[in-house]
Amino acid sequence: MVAVYIDIGSNIDREKNIQSCVDELQRKFPDMVFSKAYESASFGFKGDAFINISAGFETDLSYADLKDFLKSIENQHARKRSKTKFISRTLDVDVLLYGDEILRPDNDVPRAEILKFPFVLFPLAEIAAETVHPEQKKTIAQLAKESDLDKNSLTEVPDFPKLKIQ
Predict the structure, then answer these.
(1) Residue 35: other Cβ atoms inside 10 A
(2) What is the DSSP string of 119-147?
(3) What are the boundaries of the signal sequence (predicted)?
């Protein structure tokens, strides 16, 4: 089993798409933990604000199989793929950490966005505070504390998503 952390984001039918994704993930990984949900302005383009949430779970899926599973969830939500990196999305599910693996250059794991965007780092720190970043050799809590990223750019979305507690 490997500990995995992911980021879930949407700026199109945000609540509906993220809730549906969370429901699907909980069916496969019933012991998932979730951060609070946060709203933040779109980055790199003009578009509606995003909601992002981090989730953590353990799996015996290989990285490739996990990536395929997450991509299938995105596809179920009419995710449009484009060569343009910054665009509106019905659903974006990214693997942030896959155990202590460093899967570059073929895959962006650990995800570079952990250190670049407050909407990735701060929710991740809520659920993976003591997890050590495989490249930085610091805990996620340390990285968040030392970060120059603007935590005030995030607005908590209270009582979302509606989690099914087993």
Answers:
(1) 21
(2) HHHHHHHHH-TTPBPTTT-SBHHHHHHH-
(3) none
What is the torsional sign of CA 23, 25, 26, 28? positive
The pair of three-digit structure tokens given for residue 23, joined into one six-digit string: 């429901």
Do residues 89 and 79 touch, judged by C-beta distance below 8 A? yes
Residue 135 CB coordination number (10 Å) = 13
Q: Which of 93, 41, 103 is nearest to 71 (CA)?
A: 93
Are 13 and 91 within 8 A, CB to CB? no
Strand partners, 144: none
Q: Is the dihedral of CA 85, 142, 137, 71 positive or negative?
A: negative
Structure tokens at 144: 């968040």
| pLDDT tens, position by position, 56-109 | 999 999 999 999 999 999 987 766 666 666 667 889 999 999 999 999 999 999
Cβ-contact 121, 144 below 8 angstroms: yes
Domains present along the chain, CATH in parentheses: 2-111 (3.30.70.560)
